[in-house]
From TrEMBL:
It comes from the Bacteria. It holds the Pfam family Cu-oxidase_2. Keywords: Metal-binding, Oxidoreductase. GO terms for molecular function: copper ion binding; oxidoreductase activity. InterPro entries: Cu-oxidase-like_N, Cu-oxidase_2nd, Cu-oxidase_C, Cu-oxidase_fam, Cu_oxidase_CS, Cu_oxidase_Cu_BS, Cupredoxin, TAT_signal. Residues 60-164, 172-286, 385-481 form the Plastocyanin-like domain. The keyword Oxidoreductase applies. One of its GO terms (cellular component) is outer membrane-bounded periplasmic space. This is Copper oxidase. It comes from Pseudaminobacter soli.
Length: 486
């Protein structure tokens, strides 16, 4: 499979070297860059139609859907504990919403059409207001016609900054996106293919990094970088290796964890997942090191390269500042008194060409039929009014949820409105105090997570392989208000 990779963190080597003298002053750690002006309390983004050179600067121009004419959309930076007001003006010819993925916010601001808000009609606007309780790396995307709207480019990074800046020289965001392009560089139509939906979903042939042409990332020996990785793909899972470097994971899905190096040096990043790493750039001046995605057997490709300036190292020894990020105010589940829920994932195409767990239906069941189920029930599409909850969780109560993947396929399972602690995988405790809002289940995996149901409302839980979500791998968990109301 041919994979093309792009990047918009690009600074030319000449420009980087010209800035070298300024980087010397970076021994005093720098504050994160603001993206959309952080001093403002109100922001506005507009989903609409745009054009982008997805095959590179000299290549053909593709028709895309984008926020403010950019894919990915503008990087929004908010402040932990400060009110945000974001106006979304719909310039598409169809309904849309925006889901603020990973933010623990009021249910009415969650962006699921029909379930939590009316859809935003063409030409209309909707105002989202929420106060992010957690600092970290999040993102935003539609939850309406999501196969096309997300698959054609509607996604952007949302960063909630810590009250005090983290001690790094640079804070970078890599939005990694998977596309399926034809030989002329245009997005291939045919979203929602039922055969793909019954397997791994729509995996593309082109990967972009911040939506622009692939060029090496300029770095300098001795600097410390905070790198925020965001996977906005419809279905592609990534396993990133930074050759010659030892990235330290400091947060998963925006939530700080015990700093640790990833198993085997590979950062496993399913659709919708985020990982923050801190890297001390210890390569030799003038050297180059590849960043490789080798998740799919035999289909490894180079995402980008780390290209070192020839300047002398910024500092001789690594920064002594602690790697640990400040904690967020997550309620700690009481495991000894937690209520328990099991969710069984079934369906999909088996090796023998038959569907599992759905009555033996064959893989040609197109035209809107369910392919996947959770506990024997299927919810299709993107969300709508009157979706019955699978279960009602007692408000204020701790809950342990066991997710049992009885399928032959991978599933990044995302819970809206909460972050959960990942307790165990296949009976083994998960180390490093890892919290998430999206957990990746391999085939036959059994994963336990725990959280406190302190955010009332009807909350979506679904697979973030979007084809899987829209063909049944989705449900609703209702959380009471802790006062006997649901």
């Amino acid at each position: 499979m041919e994979v093309t990779v792009f990047s918009n963190c690009w600074v030319s080597r000449r420009e980087f070297l010209r800035a070298g003298s300024g980087l010397v002053a970076a021994t005093i750690m720098l504050k994160s860059s603001p993206g959309i002006a952080a001093a403002q309390r109100e922001y506005k983004i507009s989903p609409g139609y745009a054009r982008a050179a997805l095959k590179g600067g000299d290549g053909p121009i593709a028709e895309v859907w984008a926020y403010d004419g950019r894919t990915p959309g503008p990087e929004i930076r908010l402040r932990k504990g400060e009110l945000a007001r974001i106006v979304v003006e719909n310039r598409l010819d169809e309904d849309t919403t925006v889901h603020w993925h990973g933010i623990r916010l009021p249910n009415t601001m969650d962006g699921v059409p029909g379930l939590t808000q009316p859809p935003i009609k063409p030409g209309e606007s909707f105002v989202y207001e929420f106060t992010p309780p957690d600092a970290g790396t999040f993102w935003y995307h539609p939850h309406a016609d999501s196969l096309q709207q997300l698959g054609r480019g509607l996604a952007g990074a949302l960063i909630v900054e810590e009250p005090e800046p983290v001690e790094v020289d640079r804070d970078l965001v890599w939005v990694l996106t998977d596309w399926r392009l034809d030989t002329e560089g245009q997005i291939v139509p045919g979203f929602g293919n039922p055969m793909e939906a019954a397997m791994s979903g729509r995996v593309g042939n082109t990967v972009t990094l911040n939506g622009m042409v692939s060029k090496d990332q300029s770095v300098r020996s001795g600097e410390r970088i905070r790198l925020r990785l965001v996977n906005t793909s419809l279905a592609r899972i990534m396993a990133l290796k930074f050759e010659g470097h030892r990235p330290v994971v400091v947060a998963t899905d925006g939530q700080p964890c015990d700093p640790h190096e990833p198993d085997g040096g590979r950062l496993l990043l399913g659709p919708a997942m985020r990982i923050d790493v801190i890297i001390d750039m210890q390569g030799a001046p003038g050297s180059r090191h590849a960043v490789v995605d080798d998740f799919y057997d035999g289909l490894a490709y180079e995402v980008t390269g780390l290209s070192y300036a020839t300047d002398a190292p910024l500092r001789e020894n690594p920064v002594e500042a602690a790697l640990r990020l400040p904690n967020n105010p997550l309620p700690q589940p009481d495991l000894g008194n937690a209520e328990r829920l099991e969710l069984v994932l079934q369906g999909g195409m088996m090796g023998g060409g038959m569907m599992q767990g759905l009555g033996g239906m064959s893989g040609d069941m197109a035209h809107g039929h369910a392919i996947w189920s959770i506990n024997g029930t299927s919810m299709k599409g993107d969300g709508h009014a009157d979706m019955p909850p699978l279960v009602t969780l007692a408000g204020g109560q701790s809950h342990v949820v066991t997710m049992r993947n009885e399928t032959a396929w991978w599933h990044p399972m995302h819970l809206h409105g909460f972050s959960f602690r990942i307790l165990s995988r296949n009976g083994a405790a998960v180390p490093h105090n890892q919290w998430a809002d999206t957990v990746l289940l391999a085939p036959r995996d059994i994963v336990e997570v725990a959280f406190v149901a302190d955010n009332p409302g009807d909350w979506m839980l679904h697979c973030h392989v979007t084809d899987h979500q829209t063909t049944g791998l989705m449900t609703v968990l209702r959380v009471g208000d802790g006062k006997g109301k649901t």
